[in-house]
């Protein structure tokens, strides 16, 4: 399966490098959302709960943008047909897309968190290391798995752009709850608090449960 | 095919519900703090539990559909989820009435059970938009089944993560190990109400399945007449 995943991933990365469709849009969207929050909340600096909340809402909506685009090229350019004609395991498509989404999210977060700490974040972002990258990585894994499922479900429907956010927001809410609760003490004014372990456990559990379900059901979304 | 046993089932569910309400009003004691409004508990909690059970049942039939590809299992999954959404609306409405009466607000955010139920309800509210946005009938069944499986797993996960989010719990936890600290008469009434609601759900489920089945047969017969 590994060469298939690698081939699909190479294809998708090359596509992204040439078209620059997803990641720049997600980054731009995140930065605009920070600006919107600055005026909507009428606060120049954020810390603690509020800082964590704004960060997670922004990353969630940016992720929805990425999920929306994830399978569009496959459908419109006949990528699904080509893949289904090849004698390979169909789970490879899921693994490749989930890895791709994970990579996209990590790239977006690298830029978005830096911009966030310059524009809005009160406390220094360095106090949140290494907790914040760990929480983000666990959350990204969950978003990647669920996002790939939702993207594959929605891409064959008439109202793709509507279905993706409607399905993704409730499904990803546990990640936002756990992520925001885990990052709030890290972004507290006057030094980071301890990283709450139980939220990491919830994130890990979510990743494992949905990872297993996704591997079990993804094949049915490609069958034709 | 689904019509068999429908009559005794309907009679049993009507009898169970009448019995439950008789017990609620004439047998179960008045709650010491909340008084009469606490009686809504015998409606609200069975509604919620049956709705959640219906969502999970929909997921189980979703798995069965994915394994067999049969249309029947898809119909069973669809009707279970569709009925549970209706029960979910009723749960939210009765819950809000109870919250207003006993906590003084229509909605309370520090209640894990309320919030988790709302999230689950919002997710399942997308079931029908998703299902009917797919034209090809085979794909529609398959995708709806995938959704049902994902949702069925999401229900317990969501309740767990939201419950962790709040340390303090005000919402009564009915089904914990101790029976929620209820006196036996209240617990007995609750069990009868739960049984009545479950029977009602099964009756409605079978009714809708038989009506859908009859409609499909009628359409098939019409096509045969038209082509003959």
Describe the fold and architecture.
The complex is a heterodimer of chains A (224) and B (228). By secondary structure, chain A is an all-alpha fold. Chain A has one domain. Chain A has nine helices and no strands. In chain A, α3 runs antiparallel to α8. Chain A is globular. The mean pLDDT of chain A is 89. The radius of gyration of chain B is 20 Å and the shape is globular. Mean pLDDT of chain B is 85; it is low at 175-179. Chain B has 228 residues and is mainly α. In chain B, α1 packs antiparallel against α7, α2 runs antiparallel to α3 (71-103) and α4 (112-124) runs antiparallel to α6 (137-165). The two termini of chain B are 26 Å apart. Chain B has one domain (37-221). The chains are: A mainly alpha (224), B mainly alpha (228). The interface between A and B is medium-sized, with 33 and 28 residues.
What is the residue-mean pLDDT of chain A, rounded to a whole number?
89
The shape of chain B, in one word, is globular
Helix content of chain A: over 70%
Poorly predicted ranges of chain B: 175-179
- Please compute the radius of gyration of chain A using only Cα atoms: 18 Å
Number of helices of chain A: 9
Ends distance of chain A: 21 Å
Give a quick set of tags describing it.
heterodimer; A: 224 residues; mainly alpha; 9 helices; B: 228 residues; 7 helices; 0% strand; globular
């Amino acid at each position: 399966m590994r060469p298939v995943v690698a081939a699909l991933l190479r294809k998708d990365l090359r596509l992204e490098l040439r078209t620059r469709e997803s990641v720049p849009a997600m980054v731009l969207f995140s930065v605009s959302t920070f600006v919107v929050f600055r005026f909507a909340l009428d606060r120049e600096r954020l810390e603690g709960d509020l800082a964590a909340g704004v960060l997670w809402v922004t990353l969630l909506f940016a992720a929805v943008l990425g999920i929306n685009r994830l399978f569009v090229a496959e459908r419109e350019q006949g990528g699904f047909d080509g893949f289904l004609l090849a004698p390979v395991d169909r789970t490879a498509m899921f693994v490749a897309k989930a890895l791709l989404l994970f990579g996209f999210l990590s790239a977006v977060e690298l830029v978005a968190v830096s911009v966030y700490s310059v524009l809005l974040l009160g406390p220094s972002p360095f106090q949140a290391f290494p907790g914040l990258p760990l929480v983000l990585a666990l959350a990204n894994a969950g978003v990647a798995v669920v996002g790939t499922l939702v993207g594959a479900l929605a891409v064959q429907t008439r109202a793709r752009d509507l279905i993706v956010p409607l399905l993704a927001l409730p499904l990803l809410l546990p990640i936002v709850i756990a992520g925001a609760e885990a990052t709030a003490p890290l972004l507290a004014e006057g030094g980071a608090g301890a990283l709450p372990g139980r939220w990491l456990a919830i994130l890990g559990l979510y990743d494992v449960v949905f990872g297993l379900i996704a591997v079990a059901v993804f094949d049915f979304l490609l069958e034709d | 095919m689904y019509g068999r046993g429908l009559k005794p089932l309907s009679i049993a569910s009507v009898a169970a519900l009448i019995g439950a309400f008789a017990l609620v009003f004439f047998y179960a004691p008045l709650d010491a703090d909340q008084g009469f409004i606490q009686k809504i508990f015998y409606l609200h909690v069975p509604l919620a539990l049956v709705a959640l059970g219906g969502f999970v049942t929909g997921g189980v039939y979703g798995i069965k559909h994915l394994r067999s590809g049969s249309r029947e299992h898809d119909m069973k999954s669809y009707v279970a989820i569709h009925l549970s959404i209706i029960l979910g609306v009723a749960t939210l409405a009765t819950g809000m009435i109870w919250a207003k009466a006993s906590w003084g607000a229509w909605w309370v955010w520090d209640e894990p059970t309320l919030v988790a139920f709302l999230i689950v309800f919002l997710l399942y509210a997308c079931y029908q938009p998703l299902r009917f946005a797919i034209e090809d009938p085979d794909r529609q069944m398959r995708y709806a089944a995938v959704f049902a499986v994902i949702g069925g797993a999401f229900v317990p996960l969501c309740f767990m993560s939201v419950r962790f989010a709040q340390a303090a719990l005000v919402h009564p936890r009915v089904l914990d190990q101790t029976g929620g600290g209820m006196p036996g008469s209240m617990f007995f009434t609750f069990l009868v109400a739960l049984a009545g609601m479950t029977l009602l759900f099964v009756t409605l489920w079978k009714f809708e399945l038989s009506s859908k089945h009859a409609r499909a047969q009628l359409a098939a017969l019409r096509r045969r007449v038209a082509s003959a």
